[in-house]
Design goal:
Layout lengths: L4 E4 L7 H14 L7 E5 L2 E4 L9 H17 L15 E3 L2 E3 L7 H10 L3 H6 L5 H15 L10 E3 L8 E4 L2 E4 L5 E3 L1 H10 L5 H11 L10 H13 L4 H20 L1
Antiparallel strand pairs: 1-3, 2-3, 4-5, 6-9, 7-8
C-alpha cells in the first residue's frame, strides 16, 4: 500500500482543509471519481496517493458520464455548501461565498463574479472599462436573462484541467470548491484551460444528461466566474479575458 499524500500548512484559514475534505466527501456521496480523504485536521489533509497515466478516450468518456451523474445528484439551492458543512469555503485560497439563492442568475452574479472585481481592480489586473462591462453583464444575469429550468447541480466548482488527474483507473478529481450551481459552469471551466480529450468527456456526459441546446455559445457566460477569480490574483491577461467574456455575454443577451 502506497503512502498517503499529505498536505500541511499553518498559514491558511482553519477551515481550509476542512472545506476540501467536505467537498470531496460530498462529491463522493454522489459517486463522483474523487480522491479519497483519509484524514483531515485544521492544518493538514491526508489523501490517497494517485498514480498518473496517459489520457485515453475510454477514460474520458467514463469521466464525462460520471460527471453528469454527479451533477444530477443535485444540491438544495444555488450556492449551497456540501451537506452538513457550515465552515468557510474557498476556491484556491480565495473566499467562496456559501450564500444561497433560489435562482441561478441572482446567485452567480452576486456570489461568483462580483466579489472578485474589486480585488482585480486593486491589483491592477482589470481596467475600468472591462469592469464596467462585467458589471453590465452581471446586471443582466441577476435579472434572470439566462435562467432556465435546470435545478441546482452538485458541482466540483474548480474543474480546471489541473484538478483532473488521469490515473490507471481513470480520471480522479482533486481540489474541489464544491457547491450547488449550474452544470454548465463545470463544463465551461474544463474548456477554459484546455482539458485533454474534452470532446470525448462531453460525449460521455451526453450519454447521461445531454447538455441543453446552445451550451457552446454560453461558455463565456459560465467562464466569468473562474476568470474573475484569476483576474483577482493572477495578472492582467485574465482581466482582459474577463472583459472579453463579459462582452460575449452581453452579445448573447441581445440575441436572447
Amino acid at each position: 500500500m502506497s503512502r498517503p499524500f499529505r498536505k500541511a500548512r499553518h498559514d491558511v484559514d482553519p477551515d481550509f482543509f476542512l472545506a476540501e475534505a467536505a467537498g470531496l466527501r460530498w462529491l463522493a456521496d454522489a459517486g463522483a471519481p474523487v480522491v479519497e480523504v483519509l484524514a483531515v485536521t485544521r492544518d493538514s489533509i491526508e489523501l490517497s496517493r494517485l498514480d498518473t497515466a496517459r489520457p485515453t478516450v475510454e477514460a474520458a468518456r467514463r469521466f464525462g458520464a460520471a460527471l453528469a451523474r454527479t451533477h444530477d445528484a443535485g444540491a438544495p439551492r444555488f450556492g449551497s455548501p456540501p451537506d452538513g458543512y457550515r465552515g468557510e469555503q474557498f476556491i484556491g485560497e480565495r473566499p467562496l461565498s456559501s450564500t444561497e439563492h433560489d435562482t441561478w442568475g441572482a446567485f452567480y452574479s452576486a456570489e461568483r463574479v462580483l466579489p472578485y472585481l474589486r480585488p482585480a481592480l486593486d491589483a491592477g489586473n482589470l481596467t475600468a472599462a472591462d469592469d464596467a462591462d462585467v458589471r453590465a453583464a452581471c446586471g443582466l444575469i441577476a435579472a434572470g436573462v439566462f435562467d432556465d429550468s435546470e435545478p441546482p447541480a452538485r458541482l466540483h466548482g474548480d474543474l480546471w484541467s489541473g484538478n483532473v488527474m488521469w490515473t490507471p483507473e481513470g480520471v480522479v478529481m482533486i481540489d474541489p470548491a464544491a457547491h450547488g450551481g449550474h452544470r454548465e459552469t463545470d463544463l465551461a471551466m474544463l474548456a477554459l484551460f484546455g482539458c485533454p480529450l474534452l470532446d470525448d468527456i462531453i460525449e460521455g456526459y451526453r450519454t447521461e444528461h445531454p447538455p441543453a441546446a446552445g451550451r457552446e455559445q454560453r461558455i463565456p457566460l459560465h467562464q466569468l466566474h473562474p476568470l474573475a477569480v484569476h483576474a483577482a490574483g493572477h495578472g492582467p491577461s485574465y482581466g482582459a479575458a474577463l472583459g472579453r467574456a463579459a462582452r460575449s455575454t452581453l452579445t448573447l443577451a441581445d440575441r436572447a
